[in-house]
User: Which sequence fits this backbone?
């Protein structure tokens, strides 16, 4: 089984999402999967021009030649694709959206009706990878992922496939406190859950109810997270203002 993660954080390898991805992939690898984590900020991916040339002029092939020449085949060759990104202004970051728009050659221009009576673009290929999502947000509530969740559910429908897991982590900034003596065991417990999730996705193509429920539980009480988060922001603001003087 091949699992490919497309990591779409503007922070690249320094983001909190990458911490989640690494633990998830450890579990997937222990279960026997071949894995790859592709950091999109390290790739040259130009914007889609919206000219439909990949449907008309060169069917199935984009006329923009950049790193998508390699990434689209990797996408299609995967059994499971994981979209990993933080929440930016209630949705996916632009680096992730740009990558997704360049997946258009994998579909046909023609319209067809789905089993709900809605229309979408038809398949170019018989089989598409299954999808999973890993995401974090700086704010604590699960409501911060509502738009992103709907986006990936609609994307799953567009690609004629199945969304087998959504892992959303509020309180994302707790990962910055991995060396904190109080936070370390709490973060460690959550990391074990991510490894379990990786194993279950490989073995069962879904998350068990228990692991799914445990992944949604707060790592620290939200009130404390907000309190210490605001204190940290005040500290950073003072440091920047001091540097400017």
Assistant:
């Amino acid at each position: 089984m091949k699992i490919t993660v497309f990591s779409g954080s503007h922070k690249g390898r320094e983001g909190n999402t990458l911490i989640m991805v690494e633990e998830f992939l450890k579990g997937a690898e222990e279960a026997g999967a071949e894995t790859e984590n592709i950091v999109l900020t390290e790739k040259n991916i130009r914007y889609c021009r919206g000219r439909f040339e990949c449907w008309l002029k060169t069917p199935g092939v984009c006329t923009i030649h950049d790193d998508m020449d390699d990434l689209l085949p990797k996408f299609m060759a995967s059994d499971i694709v994981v979209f990993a990104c933080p929440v930016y202004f209630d949705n996916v970051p632009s680096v992730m959206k740009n990558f997704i728009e360049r997946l258009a050659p994998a579909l046909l221009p023609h319209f067809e009706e789905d089993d709900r009576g809605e229309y979408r673009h038809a398949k170019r290929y018989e089989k598409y990878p299954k999808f999973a999502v890993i995401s974090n947000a700086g704010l604590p509530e699960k409501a911060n992922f509502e738009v992103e969740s709907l986006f990936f559910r609609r994307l799953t429908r567009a690609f004629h496939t199945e969304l087998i897991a959504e892992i959303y982590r509020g309180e994302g900034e707790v990962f910055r406190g991995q060396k904190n003596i109080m936070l370390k065991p709490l973060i460690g417990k959550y990391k074990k859950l991510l490894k379990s999730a990786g194993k279950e996705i490989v073995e069962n193509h879904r998350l068990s109810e228990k692991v799914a429920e445990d992944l949604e539980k707060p790592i620290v009480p939200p009130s404390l997270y907000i309190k210490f988060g605001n204190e940290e922001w005040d500290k950073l603001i003072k440091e920047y203002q001091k540097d400017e003087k």
Observations:
- The longest strand covers residues 80-86.
